[in-house]
């Protein structure tokens, strides 16, 4: 009996010595992430569960998006990555396996709806985007070329207000984000009846953690991916999105 107890003590000591705390950055992007949300949002809940499945603790610190990305990219920073992010071409970061999806589309003014079935149909339109957000490759390329008149602002809330005021034709937004903001943001109380998602989505985007592309980032990418395989991602996401 004593030998069994000793073995258990050694096992526990070994586990705790192995357990680490990992730091990631994020932004207030409800219902996916946010300091004041239950479990800090759907995506954070997934990330917490994945790291916990591998015996580690996740600490998420929230910043404006540009700072969240920059903080995670800085060499020797305590942050090894940021999330939730869409996949894009980069040498600075390596991406995790998918950790859920988000339906990306356009919010439009209900009294001045736009007609489109593909991104090419948006040529010449004034489309709002959030500064430094990745959208879709085709849309971002058309904005960069000037084919679409992209107007960047710091937040989704500002884009919703601009659409409601008909200052732009539409704005890129995740439909879950739009639903959450229209319900919870007091500054949008007068526009709920003026805006709605266009029924045609741009893309059902996969969500990822972007880990810094160095030894530490790659180490945590592998640990995180192993943890994702042990949890029920759809169930965790649904709990927060529904």
Task: Walk me through the structure.
- It is a single chain.
- The chain has 242 residues and is of the alpha/beta class.
- The chain has 2 domains: 116 residues, D-Maltodextrin-Binding Protein, domain 2 (3-Layer(aba) Sandwich); 104 residues, D-Maltodextrin-Binding Protein, domain 2.
- Helices cover 37% and strands 24% of the residues.
- The chain has 8 helices and 11 strands.
- The strands form 2 sheets. Strands 5, 6, 7, 8, 9 and 10 form a 6-stranded mixed sheet that branches. A 5-stranded mixed sheet has the order 2-1-3-11-4, sandwiched between helices.
- β1, α2 and β2 form a beta-alpha-beta unit.
- α2 runs antiparallel to α8.
- The protein is globular and about 60 Å long.
- The protein starts with a helix and ends with a helix.
- About 3% of the residues have low confidence.
Secondary structure: elements and pairs:
Elements: H1 2-18, E1 21-26, H2 42-53, E2 57-62, H3 65-73, E3 79-85, E4 93-95, E5 101-109, E6 126-130, H4 137-145, E7 149-153, H5 156-164, E8 170-174, H6 175-184, E9 195-197, E10 203-206, E11 208-212, H7 215-228, H8 233-241
Parallel strand pairs: 1-2, 1-3, 6-7, 6-8
Antiparallel strand pairs: 3-11, 4-11, 5-8, 5-9, 5-10
Helix pairs in contact: 2-7, 2-8
Protein name: ABC transporter
Domain SsuA/THI5-like: 117-184
Pfam families: NMT1 (PF09084)
* Helix/strand/pairing category: alpha/beta
- Mean pLDDT across the residues is 93
Order of helices and strands, N to C?
Answer: HEHEHEEEEHEHEHEEEHH
CATH architecture of the largest domain: 3-Layer(aba) Sandwich
Compute the separation of the termini in Å: 49 Å
Helix content: 25-40%
Classified by CATH, the class of the largest domain is Alpha Beta
CATH homologous superfamily descriptor of the largest domain: Periplasmic binding protein-like II
User: How many structural domains can be distinguished in the coordinates?
Assistant: 2
Number of helices: 8
User: Rough shape?
Assistant: globular
| Counted beta strands | 11
Family: Belongs to the bacterial solute-binding protein 3 family.
Keywords: Signal
Protein name: ABC transporter
InterPro entries: SsuA/THI5 (IPR015168)
């Amino acid at each position: 009996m004593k030998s069994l107890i000793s073995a258990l003590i050694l096992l526990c000591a070994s586990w705790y010595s192995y357990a680490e705390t990992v730091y990631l950055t994020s932004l207030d992007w409800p219902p996916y992430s946010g300091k004041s949300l239950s479990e800090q949002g759907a995506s954070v809940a997934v990330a917490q569960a994945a790291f916990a499945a591998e015996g580690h603790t996740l600490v998420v610190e929230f910043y404006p998006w540009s700072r969240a990305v920059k903080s995670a990219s800085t060499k020797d920073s305590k942050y090894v990555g940021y999330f939730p992010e869409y996949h894009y071409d980069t040498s600075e970061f390596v991406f995790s396996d998918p950790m859920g999806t988000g339906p990306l589309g356009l919010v439009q003014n209900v009294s001045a709806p736009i007609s489109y079935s593909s991104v090419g149909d948006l040529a010449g339109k004034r489309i709002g985007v959030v500064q430094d957000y990745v959208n879709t490759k085709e849309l971002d390329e058309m904005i960069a070329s000037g084919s679409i008149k992209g107007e960047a602002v710091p937040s989704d809330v500002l884009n919703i207000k601009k659409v409601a005021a008909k200052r732009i034709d539409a704005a890129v937004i995740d439909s879950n984000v739009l639903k959450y903001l229209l319900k919870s943001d007091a500054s949008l109380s007068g526009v709920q009846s003026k805006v709605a998602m266009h029924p045609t989505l741009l893309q059902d985007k996969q969500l990822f953690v972007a880990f810094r592309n160095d030894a530490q980032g790659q180490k945590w990418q592998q640990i995180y991916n192993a943890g994702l395989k042990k949890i029920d991602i759809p169930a965790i996401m649904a709990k927060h999105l529904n």
